[in-house]
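User: What would this chain look like folded?
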Amino acid sequence: MPKKPKLGQNFLVNPDAALRIVDALGDISNQTVIEIGPGQGALTQHLAARAGRLVAVELDPTLATDLRAAFADRPSVEILQQDFLQLDLASLIHDPNDKLMVIGNLPYYITSDILLHLFDQADVLSRVVLMAQREVADRVAANPGSRDYGLLSTTAQLYARIDKLFTLPPDAFAPPPDVYSTVFRMSMAPRFAELEVEADEFIPMLRLCFAQKRKMLANNLKAVGYEQSAILKAFAASEIDPQSRAEALPLEALARLHRALRSPAGV
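Assistant: Here's the prediction, encoded as structure tokens.
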């Protein structure tokens, strides 16, 4: 049995899948593309041939050294040996009018951390194509009322339009993981102004709403200190059924409730 690579790596070995993933970014001939975790370069080779500029961010020092050697003749390719979670994406922009594209096969154990890091820097991003564990992709793209809809869904959909693209079986990777992997695209388009909410207030509110997603939303709010009378007034003002659970409500309704709860007049 082959030794499992370090850092949770499962390397993509299906060449057709690699092309489909890169194709999902669209025309990148004049774009700066950031690749998360290039590994053995399955995507990197295609990105290097297409992108105006490619910055591949690899944590593993051995893989980073190998990649530098492999792409030494490509002046448009830069290999950073760094933790992506510590990377300031804005620092990679040469022209302040430009935005970055991001692509990557995410390590399963830090997928949520990487997504949050991307959302924190959404203002410098235009399009993101990621491959993650199928269950995570399902949660990112989930609709209200579905089993998978929750905090990750609402947070992702606050920042981007989500498109699930295709799913790959374990044998597309070496070593094969124990799960299926789904590729999805995020077209960055933050909705805070449209919903009339502020990120630093609304996202904590979403955390409260989905703290116990199977409980009625009113009970979740009451548990964190909201008065029952204020909760009922806010639900009425927001035109939300008081028996609702957060998992049944679209972002628009949750934003209305947030604004009502914050109203100085107590709605």
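The longest strand covers residues 125-133. If you want, I can go into more detail on any region.
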